[in-house]
Structure prediction request, 1179 residues.
Amino acid sequence: MRKPKLSRAKKRQKSSGARDYARAAEICPLYVSVSNQPAKYDYDLCHRRGMRMDQIYLRTPASSYLYRYGLVVASCAIGTGLGWATGAKATCLLLAVIFSSLSRERIPSLISVFLCAAAFGSFFLSRPAHAWMLPADFLRLAAFLIAAFLVRYLVRSGRVFDRSYRAAVDTVPIGMIAVDSAGMILSVNPAITEIFGYGSTELKGKPLSLLLPDFALKCAGTEEVKAQRKDGERFAAEVGFGIEGSEDRRRWIGFIRDITLQLKDRDALGRAQRDLGLLMDMIPGMVWRSDLDDKIDFLNQYALDYLGEPIENVQRREQFIHPEDVPARQRAQNKLMSSGMPQAVEVRVRRNDGEYRWFHSRMQAVRDEQQKIVGYCGLMWDCDEQKRANDALTAAMNELNTLMESIPAMVLVKRADGTVEYGNQQMLDFVDMTLPEFRQHGCEFLAHPDEMNELIELYGAAVAEVRMFRHTYRWLRHDGQYVWIENVMNPVVDEAGNILKWYGVVLDATDRVRAEQVLKESEQKYIEIIEGIPARVFRCGPDGKAEYVNSRHLEFTGKTREEVLGFGYIASIHPDDVGWVMDKVGHSLRTGVPFRETYRERRADGEYVWIESSAQPFRGQDGTITKWYGINIVVDELKKATDALAASQAEFRLMLDSSPALICRSDPSGRPISMNKRMAEYTGFGEDDLDKWTLATPPANGILIEPWQRIIHPDDFAAIEPIFQEAARTGRMFGAELRLKRWDGVYRWFHLRGEPLSDSEGRVVSWFGAYLDIHDARKMEEQLTNLQNRLTRASQAAAAAELSASIAHEVNQPLTAIIAHSEACIRWLSSATPDIERAVFSATNVVHEGMNAAEIVRRIRSLFQKAPSTKSLIDLNHLIVEVVRMLAARLRESQVTVCTELAADLPPLMADYVQIQQVLANLIQNAIEAMKDTPAPLRLITLRSVRRDDCAEVEIEDHGHGIEDITMIFETFYSTKTSGFGMGLPICRSIAEAHRGRLWAESKGTCGSIFHFTIPATTNEHDQSPEVHRTCPATNSEAFSSREN
Amino acid sequence: MDRPVKVGKMNTQRSDLIIVIDDDAHVLFSLQSLLESAGYRVMVFPSAERFLESGEAHRASCVVTDIRMPGMSGVALRLVLGQQQPDLPVILITGRFDYVDLYDLVITEDSLIFEKPLDTSSLVETIQKTARSL
Prediction:
């Protein structure tokens, strides 16, 4: 127990109370310092006593300031008042100073002194000058002040210590108690009341045994006793007492402290030590401790159980350790002892049943607080299974190693940073190094300098992508030669994907590389051929992907190989073609059918040109297609020419088809080869018909008539066939009019024109027949002719009527005059008185008017006598044919057939061509009229020309109704026709007679009639009579000519 | 031939004036002679215009006119007179009956048309029947 440094306080002990407090502070087991600063308990002391380490300050309460200063002021006021009242001014003042000096602090006491000094002036100076003093009083004031300060100092020094100890004793948390010699309690500090639960005054005068029942006062340090609280609870307390005072007034000053908590702590520590021992025993390993002399002083239960011996028998450990392991253990032991560093060793320890098991032993030094070695301890745990597994693993490793060393390839293991970790013997032999050397050198130096960059790049890529590195390159062998090797390295990665190591093999690739080079050279040759071919060559896979194209292909398309390969070639195909071309490609790929198509492809200059692409499949041994080989050839000009030809053909065909004519091409033997659409539609001929005729054999030197017979009207065919034969023989173009049967059986009129197509030698190669539909035109022509004829007749009739009316009018005038004069004459004569004179006058006028009429008639006749007749030499037969042709429409309309029998020996005739023509036409028309009621098949007119002596005679025979009165028909105005004038035959006869010929008729009864018409042959041109000529009437004035006759 | 022919002599108990118009002088003269022999006073004109100019229409009892004449035709004259003198009969004579067109025939409802050569006795009878009395 450290003594508080209170030497100064000890000397000044004045009263027993103050001494008691000082003694108490001395006895108190706490460090107590008394100063102007707050007291502080000794930390170390607190620690040792098991108290809570805490700073405890003794603080003056804030309210005491008011108390202290108030006390000063109050004491000064009291002192002054007393001095004032008693007159003992100085004493009173001194009293005030003493009171105020009771304040234990400096500032209040100085205030007190100042107030006293101030009071001094008030008391001793005259009132008017009390703020100032007489010089005589200065001395007194000085002495007074000295006395005051002195008093203050004396008073304060004694009080301060007493109060300080007391404050310390009152505030310590340890119970302090003062007991008299009789054992009665004198005083206690507040801590006692707190601990024991009594009131502060309650204990005074009570025996100490109330608190400490088992304690006898003695001065013998501290001891632990049982104490009793007010409520009867007993607790452990630490007690210490000391004696104070003289013999007669002996007092015991002591302390009582509750140590219940400390005892509790002490028990906890004991328990912890026991637990530790138990724990040691529970450790599944041997724990031992030895002193510096290696004498074992502790073994845990596990060790004792394992060894099966008590600790005394274990001092020689060598007997428990396998003899083979003793040296190793000894070495470790020695090392530990010499160096003090922890050691580890594996040893076999004999179990109680005699079996040795492997233990891993760790040992280390035990040091005290000053780091001095005080002993050794160790832990050994059973690692037998691990050890055995490890051994097996090592064996396997060895085997693996052997394997590595013996396989006929170089094995290489690299770390992630690229340094070599392992190379097998083959590898080491290759470089002729030991493994450490190889590790040191690495394998980078082996690579050929030319390939270094490439390797770095490839290796870097493999590292970056964490994938297998595989490359064939050259390595430097130990003999200085570069040899081809193939290096395959595989990365091993951890879970995060980081490369841990590279495992790889290195194979000798010399042979392979050589073979590849040879292959490459031969391939190069082929490539030269392929590249040299002036065509675009390509190769595709079975899926249509382009795998190779030659450089001509690239030149053509202007693209790079990368752009073209794969399906890039599709982009070059013309957008309009790409669809169907790819369909065809797909079809070929699926079916294996060779591909051959013509389509447009874009050239490098952007222009699309026609190319022909063809590809053949190449089949593998099992028959599946492995490759397609093909070429593309530019066929632009050819294609364009072909297209142009096809277009022109199509155009031509369209022209043919759109032509309104039916057009048919046939071979020289008349077999139809082709026909235009109109022809096919019209005739209903189909392809099968054409095929049939193509197969049919035409008659030798003739024509195949079967197809033509089918479509040509039977009536026309008879006439057409000789024309065909003639054309076939001569090879000349021909024309005809005929009726063609339409598909529905209707016949229509066509004009046929056949044109031969001859080869260079003039042989007819084929015939072109153009059939022009003239049906409507022909019908219209017939109708028109008909109409014209009627119109002509009508106008003729109208002209005749007009003429006759004019003539009648001219003649009627004189006739009217004659009649009127005659009537007048008769009237004049027959009246009651006849006027002879006027009658004569009228009769004379009658004569005049008759003369006038005659003159008129003569004048009219002279009008028509001036038309001249022109005669020339005529061919009567020709004239007949021409008239028949002229009347063809009329004949056809009336369904009348004309038959001509013409004599070849007609004499030369001099005649008016037009007049004779008119006579014949008139007679034929009469014949047609006559046969109106005859059945159509019998309507036949026969025209004959006959020579009779020196006359030419024409006979016109009909099969009509005949002639009723043969003498009347040549009379003027006699007609059997309803619409006729009866002028025709008289005119005809007059014409005949004008030519010195005759015209007569011969009736065959009801079977028709024959008209005869003769013209005498001309012997001499001068034979003609000019009069006859003159009297021949003009064709347009038959009315009058007939009248003359 | 163009100038009007004056009636030479009045030889009748009746004094009816007959107007004859024709462009043919011979016919005109013969008709004048005929009608005078029948006892009428006769005035002849070579054309319808001359007659209308002469202003003799109101004195005439009957008018005999040729249809076809240069200028105004007989039919037209009859239409004109039909308005001026509705009761004056107009007898038409024509040399060519077929030239009388349908229109003329329609308005000529009566049968006062004679064709040349004339039936003189029926002409005189017709005049006697139709001539108006003034």
Q: What stands out?
A: The CA atoms of residues 79 and 107 of chain B lie 9 Å apart. Chain B is about 35% helix and 15% strand. Residues 1-13 of chain B have pLDDT under 50 and may be disordered. The two ends of chain B are 30 Å apart (CA to CA).
